[in-house]
Amino acid sequence: MDDLQFRRQAYGDPNDQSEDFLKHIAESPDDAKLVNDLKNLDNRLNQALNINVPDDLAEKLILRQQLNQHQQHKKRTRYLMAMAASIAFIVGVSFSMLRFTPVDLSEHALAHVYHEAKALSTNQDIGYNDVNFKLASMSGLQQSKFIQQPGRVFYTAYCDFQGVKSLHLVMQDENGEKVTLFIVPAEKRLKLEEAFADSKYQGQGFKTADAYMILVGEEGSDLNFVKNEIENTFI
Predict the structure, then answer these.
(1) Are 172 and 154 in contact (CB under 8 A)?
(2) Is 54 helix (H, G, I), strand (E, B) or coil?
(3) Count of CB atoms within 10 A of residue 220's CB?
(4) Distance from the Cα of residue 47 to its chain's centroid
(5) What is the full per-residue pLDDT of the chain (235 aa) written as tens digits?
(6) Which residues are within 8 A (CB) of 103 and not within 5 positions of it... i.e. 6 or more apart?
(7) Which letter does DSSP use for residue 51 in this model?
(8) Count of beta carbons in the 10 Å neighbourhood of residue 213
(9) Maximum Cα interatomic distance, the chain, rounded to a whole number of Å
(10) 167 close to 180: Cβ distance less than 8 angstroms
(11) What is residue 29's predicted lDDT score, i.e. its pLDDT?
(12) Helix or strand or coil: residue 166?
């Protein structure tokens, strides 16, 4: 066995027991020392790798993982709570601002008529008791009601005047034309105009004891007729 082949075999497996390998060691003290050093190195490596694993290592690793997950969950929960608090604060401030911002009833009434145009195409016959039922659920109007039918009512539904729950009716004037009526609980921030108009609709506003009444109809409709009907039947 030549010297190069011996060294390859010694580094690969210093504990090799082949005849040529052992013979080479016996004939060369230097190579014998190399093999002995390599064996000692192998022993030290084996001792370093031969570590006793604690019986509860798996449980400790699982516990550490759970603690890490718990810490991450706490951080995420605190973040979400902070976000929710911020959103709640913004919504609260926005709602408070809306509650104290002056509301022009004429503008809102016209916007509602345009937005809910389908209401004018409805042809139901609604009794005043059904209207009173809706009025009874509105803030400040529990005592207000119609004492008799205020002419024909085609449509009734709740609507919102910038945070104020209101009632949307479609009624009939003396000529059979449809007129929209909004009944809005009276609040100080609400601004009521006696007369208003745009290019398509005309409007009229008046106040009862607890509510603002806003009438909207196309040009030529008899708003005064409907107003008289309401004043004679609503208390």
Answers:
(1) yes
(2) coil
(3) 9
(4) 61
(5) 677 787 788 778 888 888 888 888 888 888 888 888 888 887 777 777 766 666 666 666 676 776 677 667 667 777 777 777 767 656 554 544 455 567 899 999 999 999 999 999 999 999 999 999 999 999 999 899 999 999 999 999 999 988 899 999 999 999 999 999 999 999 888 999 999 999 999 999 999 999 999 999 999 999 999 999 999 999 9
(6) 161, 162, 164, 189, 190, 191
(7) P
(8) 21
(9) 133
(10) no
(11) 84
(12) strand
Q: For tokens 């190579």, what's the residue?
A: 31
3-state secondary structure of 82: helix
What is the pLDDT, as a whole number, of residue 157?
97
What is the pLDDT at residue 92? 58
Please identify which residue in the block is written with the tokens 């929960």.
Answer: 77
Burial of 155 (0-12, 13-18, 19+ CB in 10 A): buried
60, 111, 142 from 53: Cα distances, Å: 12, 77, 78
Tokens of 103: 């509301």
Q: Residue 227, Cα to own-chain centre: how many angstroms? A: 43
CB 226 within 8 A of CB 171: yes
Structural contact between residues 157 and 71, judged by C-beta atoms closer than 8 angstroms? no
Contacts of residue 3, Cβ cutoff 8 Å, sequence gap at least 6: 31
Three-state DSSP state, 190:
strand
Buried b (16+ CB within 10 A) or exposed e, 178-201: bbbbbbbbeeeebebeeebeeeeb
pLDDT of residue 35: 82
